[in-house]
Amino acid sequence: MNIFFSLLILFHAFYISVIEIEVDSNNFAKATIKLFADDVSDAVRAHQGDIISRNGKYQKQEIKYLEHYFEDHFFIHNNIDTVRFKITSHTTEDQTVWINLISRAPITHKSKFTASYLIDIFPDQINMIHLTMKGEKLFAQVKKGKVTIELWAHSENR
């Protein structure tokens, strides 16, 4: 676990998560979301009424609840359709959970990425994004009022 995220655990009053996304050569996105287990538990309960573990050790049904929550709050949209993610695994350490996902379909450069999870119940939530696609890197953040970012919309050769 890196030092930055360790400090966040000590000062949980900060509402922040980190998203690392890497797009492979077939344009499928593999994502890892790092967040606090109790926060995502509260969000799932507020969103759909389902109860999941507050310690991040999820059972099969709880993974389904998480996927349902992330379908509404973590996706990529282009002019044609919306690409959702499937949870492939998760790990926990102390209060932190790492959720690994893969896109259900390829993505394109001229897409909009939405990461509005936790923002619905924590107005100060910030989701930091580090995206790598074909050697290019994008760093961004989403927060209340700006939950969507454009992926390389400025680039003419996409």
3D structure, described in words:
With 158 residues, the protein is α+β, with helices and mostly antiparallel strands. 22% of the residues lie in helices and 41% in strands. It has 3 helices and 10 strands; from the N terminus they run H-E-E-H-H-E-E-E-E-E-E-E-E. The strands form 2 sheets. A 6-stranded mixed sheet has the order 5-6-2-1-8-9. A hairpin with a 5-residue loop joins strand 1 and strand 2.
First CA to last CA: what distance? 35 Å
Topology as H/E string?
A: HEEHHEEEEEEEE
The biggest beta sheet, please?
6 strands, mixed
Give the count of helical stretches. 3
Helix content: 10-25%
Average per-residue pLDDT, rounded, comes to 86
Q: Please list the strands of the largest sheet in the order they lie side by side.
A: 5-6-2-1-8-9
Gross geometry:
globular
Radius of gyration: 15 Å
Low-confidence stretches: 7-11, 153-158
How much of the residues is beta strand, in percent? 35-45%
User: SS-based structural class?
Assistant: alpha+beta
Question: Quick one: how many beta strands?
Answer: 10
Q: What descriptive keywords fit this protein?
A:
single chain, 158 residues, 4-stranded antiparallel beta sheet, 41% strand, globular, disordered C terminus
How do the helices and strands line up, and which of them pair or pack?
Layout: H1 3-10, E1 16-23, E2 29-36, H2 37-48, H3 60-73, E3 74-77, E4 82-83, E5 85-93, E6 96-103, E7 111-115, E8 126-133, E9 136-143, E10 148-151
Parallel strand pairs: 1-8
Antiparallel strand pairs: 1-2, 2-6, 3-4, 3-7, 5-6, 7-10, 8-9
